[in-house]
Structures are given as C-alpha cells and as structure tokens.
Specification:
With 310 residues, this protein is mostly helical. It contains 16 helices and no strands. It has a single domain, classed as UbiA prenyltransferase (Tetracycline Repressor, domain 2, Orthogonal Bundle), CATH 1.10.357.140. The chain is globular, with a radius of gyration of 19 Å.
Length: 310
C-alpha cells in the first residue's frame, strides 16, 4: 500500500480524528515558536527533527487521552444527539469523538494513545529529562481537567496550564537553563490565549448539551454575555503579552514584523472576539475558536521569516 493510500485510509482517519490531528498539527507551531524565541536562532538539525516527532507524538497522545477520560460523558452526549459532524469547526474536520460514536473501540483508543505517549516519552527524555517530567505532568493535568467537567468552571485554569506545557518543554529542549522571566511571559501568553480563544469558545459550542448534563463550564456558569466578555478580556491580555514575549526574546524585530503581528492579532483574536461579544452566537464562537487556533502559527511564520530572510 502506498503512503498516499495509507494516509487517506478511512480507518486511519478515525484515529486521526480521535487525536484531532488537524488541530494538533497547527498546535505544533506553538512549541516551535517558543524554542525559536528562547534561542534567537535555529537549534541543531537533530534537535529540530527529534523535537518535531516528540511534539507531534505528545499532542496526538494528549488529545486522544482527552477522549479516553471523557468516554462515558461523551457517550451520554452522543445518545442525546450531540456532537454533530460537518460543521465549520476545526475540531470537527474529521469525526468528532469517534470513540463515543462507536466507530472506534475503547481498546483501539487505548493502544493508539499509549503508543504515541510512549514515543513522546522517549523523545522527551532524549531531549531533556525535564521535558519527560513535563509531559507526565501534562497528561495528569489533562485527565484532571476532564474529570472536573461536572465539578467547577475553574477547570479552565487547569486547561490553560496544560496548553502551556508543550511550549515550556520546548524551551527546556533547547535551553537547559532558560530565563525565568521568559518562561513566565511565555506561560501568561499561552494561558490567556487558551482561555479566551480556545476553552471558552469551545465550551460555548457545546452549551446546550453541557446545560442538559449539568456541566460546570464558564459559559454555563457565567452565561453567554459574561463568558464572551471574559474571552475578550483574556485575548486582549494575550495580544499585549505577544509583544512582551517578542521584546524579551534575543531576537530583534523591526516595525514591519510588529505590524504584521498586530494585524494577525486583530484579525484572528480581537475582531472575532468582538463579534462574539456583540452577537452572543454559537457560529461566532466557532469562528473565534477556528481563527484563534491559528494565531500562534501566524506568529511562528513571522518569526521564521525574520530568521531566514532578515
């Protein structure tokens, strides 16, 4: 079987859907960006290749872990008619929650997630044992985040921490003794971007099912209007932390680079958040989620061009 046939095989697509691979590939840009901004130059080719494999394996495993831990609650939602496919939604490009829909079995999901987790742990250990520890903490926190679904909306804070760990691990992969200030700014940037651009709009799209099953999410507990305002506030903070992160990096950026970052920030974060606040509409929540997901990638492209051309 050719590589093209393997990649388009319907069974493989189900496993890729379990790990939300289209989203995971976009997410790889965040740790790559963190590594470049920390170093101020490209790391060695060996580190780049090992890092890419490790990061891909890590995101693939953790996204699959989310569905494994949420298997029972997701099954409840599916039986109630939730998780439709075919929407203009990044996490539903393939099939949303294939385990819960019964198109993948639980043992298959466990083997898939476990295999990628093993690959991620080996790669993380080779890069830096600190990265190995960060991956284990990330997996544990992801499981805790899922289990808090009916407990507290503060679980969003756990999710924000989890999302920062891939980038923090990437920093330690290229610099065993990074600047604490750099790590704090990096953490805050990703944390507020995740809460405002990912967590809140993602939960917003499932609010009907979450209300039915008495989930404790930010949109459910605060209401849509206040949840939208909170998302907007978080993204404004993330927008300004973007420039602080660029400023403390060893790299220097010209006016054109900063203007490009501002433009992408307005297009992918601020304007979609403003439209969500104005409309309080599920479609606008999906639009914010989709666009905000691409913001770290857009900053990575700018930094990459800065390193290669300028």
């Amino acid at each position: 079987m050719s590589l093209a046939a393997i990649l388009t095989h319907s069974r493989l697509k189900l496993f890729l859907a379990l790990s939300r691979t289209p989203h995971g590939i976009i997410d790889i840009a965040t740790p790559a960006l963190a590594a470049l901004l920390c170093l101020g130059h490209f790391p060695s080719l060996v580190t780049i290749l090992l890092g890419l494999v490790t990061v891909f394996a890590g995101y693939t495993a953790v996204y699959a872990l989310n569905d494994l831990v949420d298997y029972r609650t997701d099954r409840e939602k599916v039986r109630a008619g939730g998780y439709g496919d075919g929407e203009d939604y990044l996490d539903g490009v393939l099939v949303r929650h294939p385990l819960a829909k019964g198109v993948l079995t639980l043992p298959e999901g466990i083997l898939w997630a476990g295999g990628w987790a093993l690959a991620a742990m080996i790669g993380a250990w080779l890069l830096n044992p600190v990265c190995f520890a960060i991956f284990l903490v990330g997996g544990l926190l992801e499981a805790i985040y899922c289990l808090l679904w009916r407990v507290t909306p503060l679980r969003a804070l756990v999710n924000g921490i989890v999302k920062t760990l891939g980038a923090v691990a990437a920093v330690y992969a290229v610099n065993p003794q990074p600047s604490i200030i750099f790590l704090i700014v990096l953490f805050c940037w990703i944390f507020f971007w995740e809460i405002g651009g990912q967590n809140i709009p993602n939960d917003w799209t499932d609010i009907e099912e979450d209300c039915r099953f008495k989930a404790k999410t930010i949109p459910v507990k605060l209401g849509l209007a206040r949840a939208g305002m909170l998302a907007m506030a978080c993204l404004v903070v993330a927008f300004f932390f973007t420039f602080l992160l660029l400023w403390i990096s060893p790299l220097t950026f010209g006016f054109i680079h900063l203007l490009a970052v501002a433009g992408f920030g307005a297009w992918l974060l601020l304007l979609p958040a403003l439209r969500l606040v104005e409309a309080n509409d599920r479609q606008q929540a999906m639009d914010l989620f989709n666009k905000a997901s691409h913001f770290p990638l857009s900053v990575f492209v700018i930094v990459f061009i800065r390193l290669v051309i300028f």
